Structure formats: structure tokens, C-alpha cells
């Protein structure tokens, strides 16, 4: 078994072995060919095997005795192809009839090679938890490959932040280990380590949802994705392995052919759902009710209300149907010495909200050449340019609420959208500035242009036949330019004021992040006596990372003509800013894989990482692991059971991995600049930002994993199950510090978090014959996250809440990270409650028809002590179900994906249920308590009551989505030969077709705070999600 | 082989270059700083900046958060419908609890400023720079430290007395108990006494720094609060302009503006009436301004939109229509230049911190109005109060001082011949009218002792929940949770 790097493409090539053509006897014509198919070991006759004469349409299936017979006018000899589930395919040239064809049982897919860290391994020898994304799910249309991980691998939870094209997703492998920093998995793209940091894609010039740096990568270039989950697999990535590793291999050229492939799809997207809001007359009635509560006269007479009618539908105003299209052209091929792939991609996803969308142009060159018998050089170079137009929002990572779409929802339906002449009406009496929220969305520029080049060059030198030196050098260059312009006619954010107040506000930002990597590995691979298989890996790697950014802004423009392009036209400059960081990681790594006869396998690995980001006293961390596996089905005693259980393997592993994703300079006594004015002029002040912590060290995750891989009925059914326990200790945590010291928190290694869970996957070839195949794959994963400790004196703390808000979440020992914390409610207060002296909420007037809160601690008063655990954003389990059916030339697949038990804080709904005199509200307020509606569910209308975090707004986020449904047709050889094509497939597909959920917001997949670990599952008004119908074509020549 | 050797060499060189030591280029580290005179100046600038900025981007002490305690916590203001933050609303309804976020934020912001002052004082004292500059800078930092501790000791009573930066991230070492109020006051007096050696004035580029006059004035306020009337008088006489009152020796040139409005407007900032002001300018950011005191919301010219603070009932009615302070402190109608219409708001709204230099007027996010911490009018009224207390009744100078403040506002002289108690009441009523929204009212109610605060709050139906415990704010619950050595104020225990 040769150890090859990045050899994923050849997986499919390894299984069949081709008999070389023998010197053929003189041809004879035979009208019939008969024979039988048997197991090469046992001689058992195999029923249901397909026998196919190569190059013809002749194909038969063996009968109950394994027999087959052809009637054919072909001349002998000819080549037969024999396929049978659980056996290696056979291609054989026959010269006579009858023949006996002997099939070798495939050692399940055990002979498959799986890409692991710094190499590949026979699947049979693997000791860790490694899973692959199935091929057919890889081809789902998507802007960014991280979306492909959703529901396709057990234990990987993916949540889209919003429906914004090019937006971010939160990806967690086996739950989140860290409370404060870095829970994203590590990506290894063609051997190049990429820790995705979306902050590099945000300079601060732009605002709104984050930009997904992974969307720069073209998903159609991807050949395979493997997920390394347990310590045995990930510890080789040491300090960056704790959150799992996603190994991505891109497509390569294949030896012996030149192929041109074009694939495309074009589709139409529409908004999946709209929220119920009040119309103009309903809103006017609400305003009158508020006035009534305040003892004030009604604002609208009955006739005025009737005249208002439905009013303006602001929610609908910016929505449109949008197109999505993707074009990919690739050339690939190779000869004995070289392999190449050249690809180009254009992707364009329009937004369902006007003035938004995502575009990408990408190109790739993968090339490798054997310079000599011993030396091979290869390169993978990828470049892309992408452009994202976003909705404006609050500044990136800001805690404030100020989103374009939510502003729109809250605009009074009484205000007119357009004037009679069709221009935008900007004179709403209900908005604080003469602006129009629809115009804000249309006129505001908020774009991010990303350029990424990721390239590596490597040389592999066989020092001896067993010993290979590999040296790789590579760079990942990510350049971002962001442009923002809030015209003077808009209320869009402009620094801390609005475009209107600032008389036009422009901001441009650029950021440049570069990662250099050099990796040097020696691999020794040898087998002794055909029984002992040993692979030893040793290496030294170093990675240097540098990021620089600058933002310049200006305001007070004479007009809006130059937009962001010329800040010199502005009369007021805003203080510019720039920033830069450097960090280094040096590592030594080693691994020993030993397998006895592919029966007993052991993997030992160790990585030592030194990171510049950590304290001077604790820079180096050591991350060992051990993994064991036993292929029980290879044992002689197991043979009787092998008719049913064709494969059984047990795996056990333990190890340590780390996390050091704190920002650079976190351990230093850094000072921060501030501003003050003397004599009307700006002066700079410099003061401590944080206390030095020279002992700052790695977050360490210790993980135990036990798993089993089971193949049934000649591996027609494959089951994989894992249980794991992870404990992350020495958490990098901003620990609350006495405020009177002047520091609110210090960064320390304190506390621990555990994750434990089970993962289960089953795939089954339900039907497999010539006409019809049906394959089902089901996944299930449950993870329990628990905070064990957050410091000696701290039992809980509240993460920073949006200004003006009370934190809806708590970080508390014993609860999962991301637990919602608030009051329980129990309907509305009745006259009887009040006469009985029902407990009242502090600080809010309480009358009949007001919200009734549950006195959780039963002390007779409702105060913050009555807040309690209202559930967590973390799902109890996630699942996925894929069915692929092919019948003759048709193929059909449907893919369900779901999540159960997670809660969502519907902050948008909370905001929409506040009755005010100026903002629109949810249609749920129609069912408010009033004299005429004494059984109303919502409190009576009062002016701007204080919103509370209550169980009403902590909603179930469970959902099941029909994520993908596609139907394809592959043209028969005869037709496509006419156009000289090798393959042609047409398909139609629907994305996000149906969602079953009780969640009342736009989409249960929501993360307003994106990757913020403690604020998951908060819906503060996001870009609405979409449903897509598309048609596509793949053709290759 | 050759390319291989080349790659190997390149790799080894690349590897060898990557050191793990951090040499940040975008961040200054403490060990690199506190060396030059410019460093020392910057360290002290940072102390001042805690008065008008917040590291987390929250509202600032002077301009918003202080007023939530002194305004919303007093009988000057009630909650506004736009106070959707339950913690803000609770302050306006006297129903706040020890975990109130705004109380905690005030605590945090005050100590944040003290921390920066501590660092500046300790670091600059060690520096070998020009002695005059060094002494001045240390004294400026001490002035700010005293100002902040003075607020702290009045809000919370006994308080942790922190005078040095923590040396490590070990929280245990930072856990200290509250120092008695007297010790805190002793430190305040000590810092201010040192600060009285500050320069009497600064050149234009340093206008706004603490002066010796400000130090004497603040010291006088401290002594008045402690009811050390004689010491208070001594300090006041040092700043009251020589010749205006018997024994006054002040050479600072302090005086009242003829026009009350000028005390709050941008073109007249840092003038003769301003003893110490927190400096604001446009473009610092919407939260880093005094605009929140009038609130951006008025700019909609929509009476249905409420600003963050609204006056308590009858506050407006305290004023005679001839009192020029009424039209400066409130508006009931406002001219909208954009539409040419005058909008009637019905109920009075606060107007003192509207920056009328802005065009359009709605652009209050650009407000550049200073927050006056000590105005000369304050010193005059304190002097009237001190004279009344020292002499068992109002002296001619006491009448002269209070009438100076009244006359400037076109209010006639106070009725002559009042007894001590009646004069005392007159002084406090005058203080209330003069200093609305200037961070005084709660302090003035509490320092009179007894049930004055609670009685005043009970006069408002919305604050019927007030009780004796409200004469001190609760120590933030989170601080007690973190450090059990901190005790809670009476009545606030959870």
C-alpha cells in the first residue's frame, strides 16, 4: 500500500484490476455464452450479479444458481464486466463458453484509501473517527462549500447565519469546545491549512452581516471532503485540531485521457416566507388603543381608519425574484508523467432583496509531474474574485441593533412608500429623519470585494523505495476591499449617525491577510513479511500569518455623485484607522501507524506546537494521541457469521488537541488609544487596555472515542457508530475581574467544558440491479454540551448584551453554552389575580391585561431572581436522510436535513410586539387584550412597554427541511456519441423546498451574531431565506 | 536533485526565520511606553477621556450615565416611554435592584477612570522628565481621580479605595473590602489639595484641563457635602473673584455669563463661567456627546416620539415665565427650519443640551456642547449656603450671591429677611432650577440627609416605591458575587 498524498481521485481506480490482454486465439463466432458467477473463496454461487459485455448493450443478471447466459452474435473473445455488491468488480476477457467467473469479496470498502492528515490510509487500518461527504451531496448547488457539510456527515452541525447571498455559516464538529474563542473546524485544502477567520474579510468599512471568506472557494472544484472528528485523527493537527478537521481535495486530471467538461445550472429564487404585520388601519387602531391607555384622545377617527385601508406593505417592497447561475468549464487529463486540471468558474447569485447579491469568478490549475522515477513535483493554484452586496446593518460584530430589513419591518404602514409621482416618499411623520427605509436599501452601497489566491508547490522525493521526503511551500493571500456609501437621502448608518445627518457618508476599507506555510515531512512506509504494515511520519512545519487593514471615512459631501470613490469631495474627515498583526506557529509532528495483517491496527501521533499568540511562559503545547482498531471480521472465528455480518471493526481512541485562537498580542500589557479634546482640538490619550498574562496557554481538549463500523449482507448495508467524550480545560476565557480595578475581565486559562455524544450513520443499497438502484443514507448525531467550570469564584456570567437590552443568555456552570435566560409567563393578569395580590414585575406598571409572570422562586415578587433556564440554542440531535434512486437513465435524489431540540430567541418578534406610536408591529397584536377582546393572548396596548426576555420569545427551533430534491437524466451513449460527447446529464432541482417547523420567524436556521459562541440562535431580524428552483446540465467531451 | 536541494534550503531558511516572540507593530505595550514627556501627556489625556467615552462603546458618564442616577433617580425626571431598557426604566420608577445594569455601568466607568488615573500617577511619578510638567500632569490625574471618587463615595458610601494598577491577572489579589467613607474622603481631600498647585489657567491648546481654581472649587463642594462649612468657605473665597464678596481673593476671573444660554452653547464653551467642564466636540460619535440629554429623538419634530429623558410633572411649572432659564432648560415648541413650521410638542421637553449651532438642527449626533461639571453659579450658590450655615442665617453676602444667580436669569431678588431654614430652602430651590440635567439634583437631595430624598420622590406617583435605602445606590451585585469581601448597602441585600 503506497502512501500517496492527495491521491483521493484514484480511489475509484484502485478497486478494479484490469487483466492485461493476452495473446488472443483466432476469433470464433459464438451465438451463446453461458457461465456462472461464484465466490472465489467459498465457491458459493452468487445470485443477482450483473454481467455485461463491454462496449455493447448486452447485460444479464445471474439467476438463483449464479448462472447466466447470453445470446449474442459477438465474436469471441470479448470482455466481460461483472459487478456484484460486496465484491470487487471483475473485468475479464473470455475465449470460451461456458465460463466460471470468480469474484473476490471486497474487504468491504476496506481497501479504499482515505485521506487523513499528512497522508492517506487504508480505510481498514483507520483507528479514528473519519467520515466522508457522499459524492452526490457534494454536487448540490451552493455559494460556499461549508454549506455542503450540512446534514451530510454525522456530528457536523451547520447553521446558516441568514439568507444573505455569500453570508456566513456556523460550523461545529461535535459541539463547541470553547466559550470565547475559535470553535470553527480547521480546513485543509489540498494539504494547505486554512483556519477560516471571517474577520479578515471584514475591514470595518462595511456593516451588516459578516462576509464568508470560504465563499471565495469554488465548490465545484471539490472532489472529496473528509471530516476528521476524534483525537486519533485530528491530533496530528495539534493545536488546531480540537474543533475537528475538514480535509478538502480538489479535482485532479486522470491519466490517459483529455477531458473537457462543462457544467452549468440556472435557477430562480424566491422568498420562502413573510412575517405577519399590521396593515395601516389595524395599526391606527393600535395607536388609538395606546392613547386610550395613556388617557389621551384617539389619533385616528373611525372614518380615518377606514380610509387608511391596507396601507403600505413595507416588508414586500424590496423583495423580488432573483436568478442564480453557475458555469464551470474544466480541462483535465494526463499521461504517464503528468496530470493536469484547469478550471474556470462563474457563479452569480442574485438577492431576493434589491441591491444585494453575490458573484464569484474563480480559476484553478492543478498540475503534477514525475520529473524522474524518484522526484515528483506538483502545484495547486487557485484564484478567485468575488463580490458581495449586502444589506446594511449594524457595524460588523457590533452589539447594536440597526438592520436594514428590520427597519423596514418596523416602518408604519400608514407612511407612504412612494409619492404620487413615483418618487420615494421621505416625509413620514413616524421616522426620526426624513428618509425612506426602502430607499435606504436601494441607495446604500455596501459591497465587499474579495480576492483570494491560494497556492502551494510541493516536491516529493523517494530517498529509497520506502522513504519519501515531501516539502511543501504555500501561501494563502486574501485581499478585501470594502466600499460603503450612505447617501444624504438615507437613514443608513454613517459611523454612529445616519447618512442624512452626516450629509452623505463614505467609508472604504482594505484588508490584506497572508498566510505562509512551509511543511517538511518524511514518510517511511514498509511492510514486513506481508503481515506487518508500518508507516512512520515525521515532520517540521512552520506557519507565518500577517494581516493588515486600513479604513478611511469621510462625511458631508456636496452631493452623492462620487459615492465612495473620492473622499476628497467631503468636507469632514472621520479619523482613519489601520491595524496589523503577525503571528507564527512552529510545529514538530510525528505519527506511527502499525497494522498487523490489517487486523489489528494502532496509530500513535504527537504534535508539538509553539504559538506566538500565547504567553511567554507557555508557548509550547504537546498533543499526543493513540488509536486502536480491530477488524474482527478478519478473524477466522468470525467466518460463520460473515454471511450476515460481512464487516465488523471496532475502534478506540484517546488524545489531546488544542486551541489557541486568541487574537495576537492577547497576552501582552497592551495600551489602547483614546480621544479627548482640549481647546477644541483633538488630542490622543493612551491607556492600558488589558493586563499582561505571560502564563496564557493552550485550551486543551481531551477526547475519547469508541466506534464500530459494521457491514451487513456483503456490505450492502453499512453502519458506522461512534460515542465520544470531550473535555476542554484551561479554557481561554475572559474571566470577570473586579470592576473597581478598572478592568472588567482578564484573559485567563480557566474552567472547562464537556461535550459528549453519539453519532450514527447507516447507508443501504436497497435495490441494486441493472434497471433500478436505490440507496438510502441516514445520519443521526446527538451532542450534549455542558459548562463544567468557569473559574473558582464564578458560577455564571452574562455575556455582553446589545446596548439597551438585558442579556438573553447566561453562561452558567452545569448548563450548555448558549442557554437562554428569562421569565416564564402565564397568560395575562386578570382582575382576580390583582385582587389576590399576584406578584408584580418590578418597574413595570401592572394592570388587568398586562403580562403575568411566573414567580419562579415563589417569594411574592417578580424580579431578576425569577429568571431561569429557558432552553439552549444547541440542538438535542441533528439528522439527515438521503435517498438516491436511479432508474434506467433517470436519477432522482432527495435530501432531508433536520435539527431537534434547539431553541431560538426571537428577538425580532419581541421587538415587533412592542406597541408604539411610531413603529409597525406584528399582526399577533391583533389578539391583544382589550375591553372588547377580554380573552386576548397579548397584553393590552400601552406605549412602549419594557420588553422582557420571556418564554414567549424563546421558540422551538426544531426543523426538518427538504433541502434538496433533484431529478436528472443521463443520455444514452448512442445519442451523445452523435455529438461526440462522453457524457451528458440534464437535471432539475429544488433547494430548500419545504421546511417543517413551528418557528414563527423567517427561518429556524438563524444566527444574528454569527460565530459568537455564547449568542447562538438569536434572531434579531435577518435577511429572509429563499427557495430555489433550478435546471442544470453537465456535459463532457 | 538540484531543485530538491534548493527547496530544502529555502524551507530551512523560512523555518528558521519564524520566531515565536511577539513584536507587535500595531499595539503599544506598556514596557515601551511611559518614557517621554509626550507619553506622559498622552497618559493623562487618557484619564480625561474616561469622562466622555466608554471603552465598550456604551453611553458616557458625563452626558448620559451619571444623569441616569442623578436625574432619573431624583424628582427631576420620570421614565420615558422610549426607555425600553428595563434597567433605565427601573431607575425612573425607583424600583431598581442591586443587579441594575446602569448602576453597574456607572460604577465600572468611574473606576475605569480611576484606574487610568492610578496608572498615570504611578508611571509619571517614576519618569525622569521636566519636573514642572511631571508635577502638573500628576496633579491633573489626581484631580480627575478625586472627582470620580467624590461621585463614588456619594453614590455608594464606603467604597473600594484603589490607588494602584493590579500587578497580575490573579483575581484573588485584587479582592479587597470597601474602605470607610471617611478614608475615601481623606484620599479625595489629599488628591485635591495637591491639585490646588495646578496652574491657574492654560494656553488655548490646553483649554479644558483642570486648574487650581477647579481644584479649590471641587474641594469646596467636598467640604459642603461633608458640612465642613468653615473649610468650604475658605476654599470658596479662594475662587470667588476678588472684590465681589468680603474676603474673596480669587484671581481666576470667574463670572456669570449675562445670558444663561451661553453657559451651554458651543461658541461660548470654556468661558468665564466654566470652572471645569467635560469637553465634547462634533464627530466624536453620537454616544460620545451630550446629545442624549436632549436626545436625538426630538429631531423628528414628532411629538409622538419620546426622547430618552422627560421632565417630571410640575418641573416646568417651578419657573416663572420671566425666568430665562425656563426657555433654555425646556422647549414646548420647536421651529423646524426644514419645513418652516413650528411644531408644538404639548408637554415640555429638555432643551439645555441642544446644540443650536448645528444645521440642520436635527443633526444633534454632531453635538459639540460641553458638560459643565462646575459652573461659577454653583460656587455662588454654595457660598450663599455656606454663609447661611456658618452664620445661623443669611448674611448680606449670602443674599448677594443668590441674587446674582437669580438676576442673571431675570428673576427678581429673593425676599429679604428670611430665616436660616427658609433661606436654606430658597438656596436648594434655586440650585434645582439652575442645574437641571447637570448631574446635581440627587446629590443635593441626599446631602441634606433625613427623609429629604424619599419625600421628594414620593411627591411623584411614579416613584412611590422609593424608600430610605435609596439614599445610597446598591453595590453592583456582580461585584459582590465576584468578591464576597464587598458588603452590600443597607436595604439592598438580595
Automatic annotation (TrEMBL), chain A:
Annotated signal sequence range: 1-21
SUPFAM superfamilies: Carboxypeptidase regulatory domain-like, Porins
Residue span, TonB-dependent receptor-like beta-barrel domain: 395-993
Topology with respect to the bilayer: Multi-pass membrane protein
Domain TonB-dependent receptor plug positions: 123-245
Assigned GO CC terms: cell outer membrane
Main localization category: membrane
Localization per record: Cell outer membrane
UniProt keyword annotations, A-Z: Cell outer membrane, Membrane, Receptor, Signal, TonB box, Transmembrane, Transmembrane beta strand, Transport
Pfam families named among the record's database cross-references: CarbopepD_reg_2, Plug, TonB_dep_Rec_b-barrel
Family recorded in the similarity comment: Belongs to the TonB-dependent receptor family.
Protein name per the record: TonB-dependent receptor
Organism: Deminuibacter soli
From TrEMBL, chain B:
Record CDD domains: SusD (cd08977)
Alphabetic keyword roster: Cell outer membrane, Membrane, Signal
Location(s) in or outside the cell: Cell outer membrane
Domain SusD-like N-terminal: 94-223
Domain RagB/SusD: 338-492
Gene Ontology CC, one term: cell outer membrane
Annotated family: Belongs to the SusD family.
Protein known as: RagB/SusD family nutrient uptake outer membrane protein
Organism of provenance: Deminuibacter soli
Amino acid at each position: 500500500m503506497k502512501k500517496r498524498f492527495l491521491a483521493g481521485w484514484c480511489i475509484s481506480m484502485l478497486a478494479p484490476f484490469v487483466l492485461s490482454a493476452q495473446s488472443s486465439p483466432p476469433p470464433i463466432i459464438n451465438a451463446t455464452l453461458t457461465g456462472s458467477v461464484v465466490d472465489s473463496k467459498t465457491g458459493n454461487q452468487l445470485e443477482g450479479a450483473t454481467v455485461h459485455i463491454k462496449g455493447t448493450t448486452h447485460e444479464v443478471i445471474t439467476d438463483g444458481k449464479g448462472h447466466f447466459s447470453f445470446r449474442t452474435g459477438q465474436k469471441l473473445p470479448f470482455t466481460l464486466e461483472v459487478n456484484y455488491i460486496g465484491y470487487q468488480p471483475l473485468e475479464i476477457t473470455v475465449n470460451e463458453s461456458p465460463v466460471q467467473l470468480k469474484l473476490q469479496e471486497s474487504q468491504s470498502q476496506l481497501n479504499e484509501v482515505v485521506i487523513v492528515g499528512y497522508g492517506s490510509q487504508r480505510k481498514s487500518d483507520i483507528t479514528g473517527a473519519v467520515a466522508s461527504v457522499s459524492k452526490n451531496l457534494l454536487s448540490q448547488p451552493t455559494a460556499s462549500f461549508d454549506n455542503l457539510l450540512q446534514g451530510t456527515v454525522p456530528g457536523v452541525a451547520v447553521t446558516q447565519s441568514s439568507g444573505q447571498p455569500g453570508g456566513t455559516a456556523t460550523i461545529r464538529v461535535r459541539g463547541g469546545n470553547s466559550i470565547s474563542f475559535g470553535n470553527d473546524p480547521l480546513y485543509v485544502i489540498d494539504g494547505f491549512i486554512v483556519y477560516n477567520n471571517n474577520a479578515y474579510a471584514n475591514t470595518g468599512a462595511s456593516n451588516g452581516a459578516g462576509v464568508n471568506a470560504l465563499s471565495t472557494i469554488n465548490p465545484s472544484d471539490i472532489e472529496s471532503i473528509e471530516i476528521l472528528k476524534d483525537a486519533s485523527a485530528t491530533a496530528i493537527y495539534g493545536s488546531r485540531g480540537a474543533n475537528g478537521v475538514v480535509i478538502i481535495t480538489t479535482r485532479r486530471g486522470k491519466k490517459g485521457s483529455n477531458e473537457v467538461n462543462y457544467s452549468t445550472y440556472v435557477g430562480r429564487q424566491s422568498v420562502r416566507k413573510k412575517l405577519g404585520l399590521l396593515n395601516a388601519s389595524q395599526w391606527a387602531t393600535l395607536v388609538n388603543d395606546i392613547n386610550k391607555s395613556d388617557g389621551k384622545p384617539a389619533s385616528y377617527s373611525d372614518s380615518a381608519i377606514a380610509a387608511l385601508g391596507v396601507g403600505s406593505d413595507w416588508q414586500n417592497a424590496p423583495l423580488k425574484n432573483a436568478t442564480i447561475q453557475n458555469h464551470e468549464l474544466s480541462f483535465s487529463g494526463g499521461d504517464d508523467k503528468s496530470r493536469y486540471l484547469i478550471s474556470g468558474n462563474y457563479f452569480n447569485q442574485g438577492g431576493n432583496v434589491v441591491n444585494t447579491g453575490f458573484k464569484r469568478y474563480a480559476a484553478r490549475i492543478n498540475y503534477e509531474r514525475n520529473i524522474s522515477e524518484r522526484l515528483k513535483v506538483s502545484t495547486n493554484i487557485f484564484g478567485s474574485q468575488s463580490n458581495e452586496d449586502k444589506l446594511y446593518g449594524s457595524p460588523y460584530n457590533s452589539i447594536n441593533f440597526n438592520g436594514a430589513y428590520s427597519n423596514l419591518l418596523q416602518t408604519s404602514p400608514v407612511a407612504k412608500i412612494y409619492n404620487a409621482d413615483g418618487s420615494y416618499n421621505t416625509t413620514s411623520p413616524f421616522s426620526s429623519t426624513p428618509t425612506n427605509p426602502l430607499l435606504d436599501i436601494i441607495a446604500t452601497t455596501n459591497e465587499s470585494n474579495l480576492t483570494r489566491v491560494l497556492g502551494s508547490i510541493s516536491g516529493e522525493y523517494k530517498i529509497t523505495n520506502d522513504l519519501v521526503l515531501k516539502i511543501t511551500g504555500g501561501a494563502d493571500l486574501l485581499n478585501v476591499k470594502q466600499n460603503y456609501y450612505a447617501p444624504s437621502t438615507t437613514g443608513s448608518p454613517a459611523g454612529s449617525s445616519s447618512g442624512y445627518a452626516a450629509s452623505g457618508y463614505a467609508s472604504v476599507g482594505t484588508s490584506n491577510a497572508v498566510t505562509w506555510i512551509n511543511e517538511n515531512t518524511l514518510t517511511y512506509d514498509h511492510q514486513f513479511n506481508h503481515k506487518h504494515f508500518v508507516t512512520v511520519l515525521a515532520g517540521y512545519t512552520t506557519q507565518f500569518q500577517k494581516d493588515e487593514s486600513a479604513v478611511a471615512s469621510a462625511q458631508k459631501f456636496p452631493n452623492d455623485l462620487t459615492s465612495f470613490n473620492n473622499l476628497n469631495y467631503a468636507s469632514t474627515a472621520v479619523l482613519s484607522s489601520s491595524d496589523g498583526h503577525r503571528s507564527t506557529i512552529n510545529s514538530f509532528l510525528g505519527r506511527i501507524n502499525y497494522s498487523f495483517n490489517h487486523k489489528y491496527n494502532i496509530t500513535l501521533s504527537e504534535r508539538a506546537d509553539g504559538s506566538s499568540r500565547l504567553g511567554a511562559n507557555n508557548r509550547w503545547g504537546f498533543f499526543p494521541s493513540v488509536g486502536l482498531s480491530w477488524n474482527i471480521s478478519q478473524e477466522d472465528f468470525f467466518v460463520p457469521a460473515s454471511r450476515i455480518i460481512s464487516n465488523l471493526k471496532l475502534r478506540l481512541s484517546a488524545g489531546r488537541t488544542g486551541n489557541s485562537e486568541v487574537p495576537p498580542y492577547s497576552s501582552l500589557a497592551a495600551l489602547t488609544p483614546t480621544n479627548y479634546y482640549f481647546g477644541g482640538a483633538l488630542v490622543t490619550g493612551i491607556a492600558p487596555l488589558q493586563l499582561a498574562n505571560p502564563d496564557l496557554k493552550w485550551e486543551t481538549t481531551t477526547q475519547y472515542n469508541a466506534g464500530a463500523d459494521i457491514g451487513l449482507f456483503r456490505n450492502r448495508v453499512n453502519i458506522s457508530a461512534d460515542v465520544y467524550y470531550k473535555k476542554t480545560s484551561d479554557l481561554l476565557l475572559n474571566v470577570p475581574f473586579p470592576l473597581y480595578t478598572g478592568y472588567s475581565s482578564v484573559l485567563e486559562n480557566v474552567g472547562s467544558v464537556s461535550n459528549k455524544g453519539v453519532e450514527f450513520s447507516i447507508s443501504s443499497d436497497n435495490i441494486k440491479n441493472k434497471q433500478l438502484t436505490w440507496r438510502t443514507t441516514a445520519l443521526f448525531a446527538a451532542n450534549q454540551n455542558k459548562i463544567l467550570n468557569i473559574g473558582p469564584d464564578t458560577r455564571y456570567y452574562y455575556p455582553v448584551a446589545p446596548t439597551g437590552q438585558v442579556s438573553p443568555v447566561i453562561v452558567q456552570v452545569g448548563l450548555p453554552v448558549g442557554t437562554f435566560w428569562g421569565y416564564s409567563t402565564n397568560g395575562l393578569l386578570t382582575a382576580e389575580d390583582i385582587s389576590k395580590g399576584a406578584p408584580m414585575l418590578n418597574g413595570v406598571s401592572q394592570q388587568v391585561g398586562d403580562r403575568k409572570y411566573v414567580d419562579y422562586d415563589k417569594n411574592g415578587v417578580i424580579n431578576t431572581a425569577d429568571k431561569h433556564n429557558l432552553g439552549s440554542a444547541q440542538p438535542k440531535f441533528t439528522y439527515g436522510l438521503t435517498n438516491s434512486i436511479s432508474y434506467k437513465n433517470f436519477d432522482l435524489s432527495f435530501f432531508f436535513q433536520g435539527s431537534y431540540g434547539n431553541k431560538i430567541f426571537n428577538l425580532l418578534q419581541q421587538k415587533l410586539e412592542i406597541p408604539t406610536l411610531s413603529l409597525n408591529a406584528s399582526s399577533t397584536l391583533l389578539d391583544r387584550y382589550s375591553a372588547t377582546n377580554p380573552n386576548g393572548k397579548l397584553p393590552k396596548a400601552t406605549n412602549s412597554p419594557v420588553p422582557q426576555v420571556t418564554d414567549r420569545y424563546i421558540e422551538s427551533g426544531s426543523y426538518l427541511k427538504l433541502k434538496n430534491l433533484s431529478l436528472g437524466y443521463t443520455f444514452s451513449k448512442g445519442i451523445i456519441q452523435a455529438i461526440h460527447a462522453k457524457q451528458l446529464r440534464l437535471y432539475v432541482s429544488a433547494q430548500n423546498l419545504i421546511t417543517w417547523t413551528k418557528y414563527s420567524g423567517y427561518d429556524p436556521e438563524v444566527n444574528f451574531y454569527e460565530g459568537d459562541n455564547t449568542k447562538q440562535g438569536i434572531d434579531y431580524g435577518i435577511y429572509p431565506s429563499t427557495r430555489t428552483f433550478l435546471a442544470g446540465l453537465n456535459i463532457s467531451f | 536533485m538540484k531543485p530538491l536541494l534548493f527547496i530544502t534550503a529555502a524551507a530551512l531558511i523560512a523555518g528558521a526565520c519564524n520566531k515565536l516572540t511577539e513584536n507587535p507593530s500595531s499595539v503599544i505595550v506598556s514596557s515601551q511606553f511611559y518614557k517621554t514627556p509626550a507619553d506622559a501627556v498622552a497618559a493623562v489625556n487618557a484619564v480625561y477621556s474616561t469622562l466622555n467615552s466608554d471603552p465598550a462603546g456604551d453611553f458616557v458618564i458625563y452626558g448620559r450615565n451619571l444623569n441616569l442616577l442623578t436625574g432619573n433617580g431624583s424628582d427631576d425626571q420620570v421614565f420615558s416611554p422610549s426607555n425600553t431598557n428595563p434597567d433605565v426604566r427601573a431607575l425612573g420608577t425607583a424600583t431598581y435592584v442591586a443587579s441594575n445594569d446602569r448602576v453597574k455601568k456607572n460604577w465600572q466607568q468611574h473606576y475605569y477612570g480611576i484606574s487610568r488615573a492610578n496608572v498615570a500617577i504611578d508611571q509619571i511619578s517614576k519618569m525622569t522628565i521636566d519636573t514642572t510638567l511631571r508635577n502638573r500632569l500628576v496633579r491633573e490625574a489626581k484631580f480627575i481621580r478625586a472627582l470620580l471618587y467624590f461621585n463614588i463615595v456619594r453614590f455608594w458610601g464606603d467604597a473600594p479605595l484603589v490607588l494602584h494598577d493590579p500587578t497580575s491577572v490573579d483575581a484573588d489579589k485584587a479582592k479587597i473590602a470597601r474602605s470607610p467613607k471617611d478614608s475615601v474622603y481623606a484620599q479625595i481631600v489629599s488628591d485635591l489639595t495637591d491639585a490646588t498647585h495646578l496652574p491657574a489657567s492654560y494656553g488655548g491648546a490646553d483649554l479644558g484641563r483642570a486648574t487650581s481654581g477647579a481644584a479649590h472649587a471641587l474641594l469646596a463642594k467636598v467640604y459642603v457635602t461633608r458640612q465642613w462649612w468653615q473649610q468650604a468657605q475658605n476654599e470658596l473665597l479662594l475662587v470667588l473673584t476678588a472684590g465681589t464678596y468680603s474676603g474673596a481673593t480669587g484671581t481666576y476671573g470667574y463670572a456669570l455669563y449675562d445670558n444663561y444660554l451661553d453657559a451651554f452653547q458651543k461658541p461660548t464653551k470654556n468661558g468665564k463661567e466654566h470652572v471645569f467642564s467635560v469637553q465634547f466636540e462634533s464627530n466624536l460619535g453620537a454616544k460620545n456627546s451630550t446629545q442624549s440629554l436632549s436626545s436625538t429623538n426630538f429631531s423628528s419634530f414628532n411629538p409622538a416620539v419620546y426622547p430618552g429623558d422627560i421632565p417630571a410633572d410640575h418641573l416646568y411649572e417651578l419657573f416663572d415665565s420671566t425666568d430665562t432659564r425656563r426657555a433654555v432648560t425646556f422647549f414646548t415648541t420647536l421651529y423646524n427650519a426644514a419645513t418652516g413650521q413650528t411644531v408644538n410638542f404639548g408637554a415640555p421637553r429638555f432643551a439645555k443640551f441642544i446644540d443650536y449651532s448645528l444645521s440642520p438642527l436635527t443633526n444633534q449626533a454632531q453635538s459639540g456642547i460641553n458638560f459643565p461639571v462646575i459652573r461659577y453659579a454653583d460656587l455662588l450658590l454654595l457660598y450663599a449656603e455656606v454663609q447661611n450655615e456658618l452664620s445661623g442665617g443669611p448674611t448680606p453676602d449670602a443674599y448677594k450671591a443668590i441674587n446674582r444667580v437669580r438676576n442673571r436669569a431675570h428673576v427678581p431678588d429673593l425676599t429679604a429677611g428670611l430665616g436660616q431654614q427658609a433661606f436654606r430652602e430658597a438656596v436648594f430651590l434655586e440650585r434645582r432650577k439652575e442645574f437641571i440635567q447637570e448631574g446635581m439634583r440627587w446629590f443635593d437631595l441626599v446631602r441634606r440627609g433625613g427623609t429629604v430624598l424619599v419625600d421628594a420622590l414620593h411627591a411623584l406617583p411614579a416613584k412611590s416605591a422609593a424608600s430610605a435605602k435609596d439614599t445610597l445606590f446598591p453595590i453592583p451585585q456582580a461585584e459582590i458575587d465576584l468578591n464576597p469581601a464587598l458588603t452590600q448597602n443597607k436595604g439592598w441585600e438580595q
